Amino acid sequence: MALLTVQDVHTSYGKIRALHGVSLVVEPGEIVCLIGANGAGKTTILKTICGLIKPSQGKILFAGEDLTRLPPHEIVRRGIALVPEGRQVFSRMTIQENLEMGAFTRTNRPAIAADIEKIYILFPRLKERRKQLSGTLSGGEQQMLAIARAMMAQPRLLLLDEPSMGLSPILLESIFATILEINRQGITVLLVEQNTFASLEIAHRGYVIQTGKIVFDDSAAGLKDNDMVKKTYLGIA
Amino acid sequence: MTMIQNFIAVYARKRWLLWVVLGLLAAALLVMPLLPIPQKNLWVRILGYAGLYILLGLGLLIHVGFAGMLDLGFAAYYGIGAYTYALLASRQFDIHLPFWGMLLVGGLVAALAGALISIPVLRLRGDYLAIVTLGFGEITRLLLLNLKGLTNGSQGVIGIDKPVLFGVVFNTGTHFYYLIFLLILLFTFLTNRLIQSRIGRAWLAIREDEDVAEMSGVNTIWYKLLAFVLGAFIGGLGGVVFASWQGSIFPDNFNLLVSINVLCLIILGGLGNQYGVIIGALALIALPDMLRGFSDFRMLIFGILLVVMMILKPNGFLPRVPPRLEKAADGKIKPREDRA
Questions:
Q1: A166 or B63, greater pLDDT
Q2: CB atoms within 10 A of CB B229
Q3: Subunit contact A90:B336, Cβ cutoff 8 A
Q4: Cross-chain CB nearest to B216 (options A92, A101, A131)
């Protein structure tokens, strides 16, 4: 059974319709990427999945359960975590507090402490700076922290919104390596990225979205070979 | 000024020094009414009044400092608490309910008002919330002014009962001074526990970023409601004390300036810190009275001091400091790398 099923979802911001019937499926263990231009509706899809925006029509099923009517804090408890666009960390909290905040839904303190230690192994930079206010971190470190915080919720599905935004090529590589590592630990990933080339390198499959509609989907290799994708998103003639 | 700045810099690093300073301050304030000081009654009155503002500050701190909801109508809860007591323990309707129970009831009525106003506004953010609460504060004052059958309008409610404890009637400023002192100790302790709890953590997250807090599993609507209710409770309780101390209250005691003053003192003290509220209230409320020697120039000097203060310490006297270092696995406390 698919982990996540988005069925014919329509979403609008007031009178402006952002999604016109989006359907997609994410299988357990996959990395799936959403490819599309600015304003195509990629972020809206993620926000709709995690309940920050309610769809006007359509259904979102997670492990068979309908999420459409649940508030976001309940959806987190079901096992979906979002790493929002633009590295939104709790900037006036320390790194340690940010991580603890990520585990807000959990009550088992020893397990939380153990997970924080695991996070510090994955991100040694964060350990060095655990007592620092996270607003003082560099952009790349904040992105690491945003991912780490989402991981603290013990998600089964991790939604990543533009994790490479504004990062240097070296940092981009390390962020993508981290995403691969997270996936290897058994967490399913739905990735939204402007950097189509990099995301097709790590994804299993991808969906191409244009003005609020999925236009087609294929394996990552298939998308890399697709003429339209090459021309529009990879810049290869 | 640099001396003060150095001092602040030192105690920002050494929290125990802050405790020593606060302890000495508390001890000095505790014995002050017993000492033979010239114009003692005036001092008791000024500091008692500042104490009331500390209480209000602790309430508003929950709204603004902890949960990040800009509330410009805090005087409403103060007024509702005060009028609840005034109407149920005065000559107005010849009802005389005991003060100690009413202290709780006044707080609860204000908390209920806080819950009612918060229901429509919980989905609003920032500026919109500020405007709605501003309106709520003014509407409350106008209702107190115009519901003449109930509140006696601008004539106010007079002949409000004094608290009685073990047969002792609270009829001097010193009695109220100590009552307020105890309430400040109690609520400083309680708000301190609160901010370090899971609830406090959720509030701070909401203050930082509501969407991300929600996505971390915080039921933001519920925690914001809780903040509104608890803050309003403290405001209402302050109102009961005020009404019983003054003996008569008028709608104008709860005007916009009260809300603004309470907001100013918590900003001055450094948002997100109970001890800052104490320092902020002493500076903002007691200082204008202490400057009486300058007569006409008093408010001018006060204004200049405020401006200078905010330039020197834009984050207030005592901004929130992250929790202390915990012990590392080997049991040793590690030095902080960012210490110069």
A1: B63
A2: 18
A3: no
A4: A101
